[in-house]
Amino acid sequence: MRKKIVAGNWKMNKTAEEAKALLSEVINMVKDEVTGDVEVVLCPPALYLASARQYVTAGGKVSLGAQNCHEKASGAYTGEISAPMLQSIGVDYVIIGHSERRQYFEETNEQLAEKVNSALESGLKPIFCCGESRDLRENGDYIGFVKDQITEGLFHLSSESFANVVIAYEPIWAIGTGLTASSGQAQDMHFELRQHIAGQYGDSVAQDTTILYGGSANAQNAAELFSQPDVDGGLIGGASLKARDFLTVVKAAQ
Ligand code: PEP
Questions:
Q1: Is the Cβ–Cβ distance between 244 and 32 less than 8 Å?
Q2: pLDDT over 60 at 210, yes or no
Q3: Rounded to the nearest whole angstrom, what is the distance from the C-alpha of residue 174 to the centroid of ligand 1?
Q4: 3-state secondary structure 179-215
Q5: Is residue 58 scored above 60 in pLDDT?
Q6: Where is the active site (predicted)?
Protein backbone atom coordinates (compact mmCIF):
# COMPACT_ATOMS: atom_id res chain seq x y z
CA MET A 1 0.00 0.00 0.00
CA ARG A 2 1.49 3.34 -0.97
CA LYS A 3 1.74 6.20 1.46
CA LYS A 4 -0.36 9.37 1.25
CA ILE A 5 1.80 12.42 1.74
CA VAL A 6 1.14 16.14 1.86
CA ALA A 7 4.34 18.21 1.78
CA GLY A 8 4.51 21.95 2.38
CA ASN A 9 7.20 23.79 0.41
CA TRP A 10 7.63 27.13 2.15
CA LYS A 11 10.19 28.26 -0.44
CA MET A 12 12.09 31.43 0.56
CA ASN A 13 9.43 32.73 2.96
CA LYS A 14 9.09 33.52 6.70
CA THR A 15 11.40 35.12 9.22
CA ALA A 16 12.62 32.97 12.12
CA GLU A 17 9.78 34.14 14.39
CA GLU A 18 7.15 33.59 11.71
CA ALA A 19 8.55 30.18 10.87
CA LYS A 20 8.43 29.11 14.51
CA ALA A 21 4.83 30.27 14.83
CA LEU A 22 3.69 28.51 11.66
CA LEU A 23 5.52 25.33 12.56
CA SER A 24 3.98 25.04 16.01
CA GLU A 25 0.53 25.96 14.69
CA VAL A 26 0.69 23.26 12.01
CA ILE A 27 2.08 20.64 14.37
CA ASN A 28 -0.63 21.29 16.96
CA MET A 29 -3.36 21.18 14.34
CA VAL A 30 -2.02 17.91 12.93
CA LYS A 31 -1.91 16.42 16.43
CA ASP A 32 -5.48 17.49 17.21
CA GLU A 33 -7.20 17.04 13.87
CA VAL A 34 -5.48 14.52 11.64
CA THR A 35 -6.74 11.04 12.40
CA GLY A 36 -6.14 9.28 9.09
CA ASP A 37 -3.10 7.82 7.48
CA VAL A 38 -1.34 10.76 5.89
CA GLU A 39 2.25 11.87 6.39
CA VAL A 40 2.86 15.60 6.59
CA VAL A 41 6.28 16.78 5.39
CA LEU A 42 7.23 20.34 6.29
CA CYS A 43 9.94 21.92 4.13
CA PRO A 44 10.93 25.26 5.66
CA PRO A 45 14.01 27.17 4.48
CA ALA A 46 17.20 25.23 5.32
CA LEU A 47 18.19 27.80 7.92
CA TYR A 48 15.30 26.72 10.16
CA LEU A 49 15.58 22.94 9.80
CA ALA A 50 17.75 22.33 12.85
CA SER A 51 15.50 24.26 15.23
CA ALA A 52 12.40 22.80 13.57
CA ARG A 53 13.67 19.32 14.43
CA GLN A 54 12.94 19.82 18.13
CA TYR A 55 9.23 20.42 17.41
CA VAL A 56 8.85 17.61 14.93
CA THR A 57 8.73 14.25 16.64
CA ALA A 58 10.41 11.53 14.67
CA GLY A 59 8.09 8.66 13.92
CA GLY A 60 4.99 10.84 14.24
CA LYS A 61 2.74 12.14 11.48
CA VAL A 62 5.01 15.10 10.73
CA SER A 63 8.38 14.80 9.01
CA LEU A 64 10.94 17.37 7.95
CA GLY A 65 12.14 18.03 4.43
CA ALA A 66 14.76 20.26 2.86
CA GLN A 67 14.08 22.16 -0.35
CA ASN A 68 17.34 21.21 -2.04
CA CYS A 69 20.74 19.60 -1.46
CA HIS A 70 24.08 19.65 -3.25
CA GLU A 71 25.09 16.57 -5.21
CA LYS A 72 28.47 16.26 -3.47
CA ALA A 73 28.79 15.07 0.13
CA SER A 74 31.30 17.78 1.12
CA GLY A 75 33.91 20.11 -0.34
CA ALA A 76 34.63 23.61 -1.58
CA TYR A 77 31.10 24.60 -2.61
CA THR A 78 30.56 27.87 -0.76
CA GLY A 79 27.01 28.46 0.36
CA GLU A 80 25.80 24.94 -0.38
CA ILE A 81 24.32 22.28 1.91
CA SER A 82 24.91 18.55 1.43
CA ALA A 83 22.67 15.54 2.00
CA PRO A 84 24.87 14.13 4.82
CA MET A 85 24.60 17.51 6.61
CA LEU A 86 20.81 17.39 6.33
CA GLN A 87 20.80 13.82 7.55
CA SER A 88 23.00 14.77 10.52
CA ILE A 89 20.35 17.17 11.86
CA GLY A 90 17.53 14.67 11.42
CA VAL A 91 15.96 15.73 8.12
CA ASP A 92 13.85 12.99 6.53
CA TYR A 93 13.10 14.16 2.97
CA VAL A 94 14.63 16.46 0.37
CA ILE A 95 12.87 18.08 -2.58
CA ILE A 96 14.97 17.54 -5.71
CA GLY A 97 14.49 19.18 -9.09
CA HIS A 98 11.79 21.68 -8.24
CA SER A 99 10.96 23.61 -11.41
CA GLU A 100 12.25 26.82 -9.81
CA ARG A 101 15.64 25.15 -9.31
CA ARG A 102 15.58 23.78 -12.84
CA GLN A 103 14.69 27.24 -14.19
CA TYR A 104 16.67 29.70 -12.04
CA PHE A 105 19.65 27.49 -11.17
CA GLU A 106 19.75 25.58 -14.45
CA GLU A 107 19.64 22.17 -12.80
CA THR A 108 19.70 19.37 -15.37
CA ASN A 109 18.34 15.85 -15.12
CA GLU A 110 21.93 14.58 -15.06
CA GLN A 111 22.79 16.76 -12.05
CA LEU A 112 19.49 15.84 -10.40
CA ALA A 113 20.31 12.14 -10.77
CA GLU A 114 23.48 12.84 -8.75
CA LYS A 115 21.51 14.71 -6.11
CA VAL A 116 19.10 11.77 -5.88
CA ASN A 117 22.06 9.42 -5.36
CA SER A 118 23.56 11.63 -2.68
CA ALA A 119 20.23 11.92 -0.87
CA LEU A 120 19.62 8.17 -0.92
CA GLU A 121 23.17 7.36 0.16
CA SER A 122 22.57 9.60 3.19
CA GLY A 123 19.28 7.95 4.04
CA LEU A 124 17.12 10.88 2.89
CA LYS A 125 14.01 10.29 0.80
CA PRO A 126 14.00 12.37 -2.37
CA ILE A 127 10.80 14.09 -3.48
CA PHE A 128 11.64 14.22 -7.17
CA CYS A 129 9.80 16.96 -9.09
CA CYS A 130 8.86 16.80 -12.73
CA GLY A 131 6.49 18.73 -14.97
CA GLU A 132 6.06 20.44 -18.30
CA SER A 133 5.85 24.09 -19.37
CA ARG A 134 2.69 25.64 -20.71
CA ASP A 135 4.16 25.81 -24.21
CA LEU A 136 4.92 22.10 -24.15
CA ARG A 137 1.47 21.26 -22.79
CA GLU A 138 -0.12 23.18 -25.67
CA ASN A 139 2.24 22.32 -28.51
CA GLY A 140 4.38 19.30 -27.76
CA ASP A 141 4.80 15.79 -26.40
CA TYR A 142 4.41 16.84 -22.77
CA ILE A 143 3.83 13.31 -21.52
CA GLY A 144 7.04 12.11 -23.19
CA PHE A 145 8.91 15.09 -21.74
CA VAL A 146 7.85 14.31 -18.17
CA LYS A 147 8.56 10.60 -18.64
CA ASP A 148 12.06 11.52 -19.83
CA GLN A 149 12.62 13.59 -16.67
CA ILE A 150 11.80 10.50 -14.62
CA THR A 151 13.92 8.21 -16.80
CA GLU A 152 16.96 10.48 -16.69
CA GLY A 153 16.64 11.48 -13.05
CA LEU A 154 15.65 8.16 -11.50
CA PHE A 155 15.78 5.06 -13.67
CA HIS A 156 19.45 4.38 -12.93
CA LEU A 157 18.33 3.35 -9.42
CA SER A 158 17.87 -0.23 -8.28
CA SER A 159 14.28 -1.09 -7.39
CA GLU A 160 15.28 -1.19 -3.68
CA SER A 161 16.53 2.39 -3.90
CA PHE A 162 13.64 3.54 -6.06
CA ALA A 163 11.26 2.36 -3.33
CA ASN A 164 12.47 5.32 -1.21
CA VAL A 165 11.63 7.93 -3.84
CA VAL A 166 8.48 10.06 -3.90
CA ILE A 167 7.52 11.70 -7.19
CA ALA A 168 5.85 15.10 -7.44
CA TYR A 169 4.17 15.95 -10.73
CA GLU A 170 4.12 19.73 -10.89
CA PRO A 171 3.09 21.27 -14.21
CA ILE A 172 5.10 24.50 -14.39
CA TRP A 173 2.11 26.43 -15.72
CA ALA A 174 0.23 25.65 -12.51
CA ILE A 175 2.92 26.55 -9.96
CA GLY A 176 2.18 29.76 -8.12
CA THR A 177 -0.12 30.91 -10.92
CA GLY A 178 -3.51 30.06 -9.46
CA LEU A 179 -4.05 27.84 -12.53
CA THR A 180 -4.56 24.30 -11.22
CA ALA A 181 -4.48 21.24 -13.42
CA SER A 182 -7.97 19.76 -13.51
CA SER A 183 -8.33 16.57 -11.52
CA GLY A 184 -8.62 14.74 -14.87
CA GLN A 185 -5.39 16.26 -16.19
CA ALA A 186 -3.59 15.34 -12.97
CA GLN A 187 -4.98 11.79 -13.00
CA ASP A 188 -4.04 11.26 -16.66
CA MET A 189 -0.42 12.24 -16.05
CA HIS A 190 -0.13 10.31 -12.79
CA PHE A 191 -1.52 7.22 -14.54
CA GLU A 192 1.00 7.62 -17.38
CA LEU A 193 3.86 8.01 -14.91
CA ARG A 194 2.80 4.95 -12.95
CA GLN A 195 2.71 2.93 -16.18
CA HIS A 196 6.16 4.27 -17.04
CA ILE A 197 7.49 3.17 -13.63
CA ALA A 198 5.85 -0.24 -14.09
CA GLY A 199 7.70 -0.60 -17.41
CA GLN A 200 11.02 -0.14 -15.62
CA TYR A 201 10.48 -1.71 -12.19
CA GLY A 202 7.34 -3.84 -12.52
CA ASP A 203 3.76 -3.34 -11.46
CA SER A 204 4.22 -3.95 -7.75
CA VAL A 205 6.88 -1.20 -7.38
CA ALA A 206 4.74 1.15 -9.49
CA GLN A 207 1.68 0.51 -7.34
CA ASP A 208 3.73 1.29 -4.21
CA THR A 209 5.14 4.58 -5.55
CA THR A 210 3.67 7.73 -4.04
CA ILE A 211 3.00 10.33 -6.75
CA LEU A 212 2.08 13.79 -5.48
CA TYR A 213 0.41 16.57 -7.42
CA GLY A 214 1.68 20.15 -7.10
CA GLY A 215 0.54 23.38 -8.70
CA SER A 216 -1.83 25.82 -7.01
CA ALA A 217 -3.41 23.06 -4.96
CA ASN A 218 -5.31 24.66 -2.08
CA ALA A 219 -8.06 24.29 0.49
CA GLN A 220 -10.73 24.61 -2.19
CA ASN A 221 -9.50 22.15 -4.80
CA ALA A 222 -7.46 19.57 -2.83
CA ALA A 223 -10.33 17.16 -2.12
CA GLU A 224 -11.20 16.88 -5.81
CA LEU A 225 -7.55 16.42 -6.84
CA PHE A 226 -6.85 13.85 -4.14
CA SER A 227 -9.98 11.86 -5.00
CA GLN A 228 -8.24 10.64 -8.16
CA PRO A 229 -6.97 7.06 -7.90
CA ASP A 230 -3.37 7.82 -8.89
CA VAL A 231 -3.00 11.09 -6.95
CA ASP A 232 -1.47 10.22 -3.59
CA GLY A 233 -1.34 13.65 -1.99
CA GLY A 234 0.29 16.96 -2.82
CA LEU A 235 3.33 19.19 -2.80
CA ILE A 236 1.91 22.48 -1.67
CA GLY A 237 3.53 25.91 -2.06
CA GLY A 238 1.43 29.01 -1.37
CA ALA A 239 -1.27 27.23 0.62
CA SER A 240 1.33 25.76 2.99
CA LEU A 241 2.10 29.22 4.39
CA LYS A 242 -1.22 29.48 6.23
CA ALA A 243 -1.78 26.82 8.88
CA ARG A 244 -5.55 26.51 8.46
CA ASP A 245 -5.39 26.30 4.66
CA PHE A 246 -2.60 23.75 4.83
CA LEU A 247 -4.50 21.63 7.35
CA THR A 248 -7.55 21.60 5.10
CA VAL A 249 -5.33 20.27 2.31
CA VAL A 250 -3.79 17.66 4.62
CA LYS A 251 -7.22 16.47 5.77
CA ALA A 252 -8.36 16.15 2.16
CA ALA A 253 -5.69 13.48 1.67
CA GLN A 254 -6.62 11.20 4.59
C1 PEP B 1 5.41 24.30 -5.36
O2 PEP B 1 6.17 25.23 -5.25
O3 PEP B 1 5.84 23.15 -5.28
C4 PEP B 1 3.99 24.58 -5.60
C5 PEP B 1 3.22 23.61 -5.96
O6 PEP B 1 3.60 25.89 -5.42
P7 PEP B 1 2.07 26.42 -5.42
O8 PEP B 1 1.27 25.46 -4.60
O9 PEP B 1 2.15 27.78 -4.82
O10 PEP B 1 1.62 26.43 -6.85
A1: no
A2: yes
A3: 8
A4: CCCCHHHHHHHHHHHHHHHHHHHCHHHHHHCCEEECC
A5: no
A6: 98, 170
Domains along the sequence of the chain with CATH = 5-252 (3.20.20.70)
The pTM (predicted TM-score) of the whole model is 0.97
Using the Cα atoms of residue 101, residue 230, residue 64 and residue 238 in order, give the sign of their dihedral: positive
Distance CA 212, CA 205 (A): 16
Distance CA 106, CA 168 (A): 19
196 as an active site residue: the answer is no
Q: Note if 170 is an active site residue.
A: yes
pLDDT at 59: 58
The whole-angstrom separation of Cα 187 and Cα 182 is 9
DSSP string for residues in 149-181: HHHHHHTTS-HHHHTT-EEEE--GGGTTTS-PP
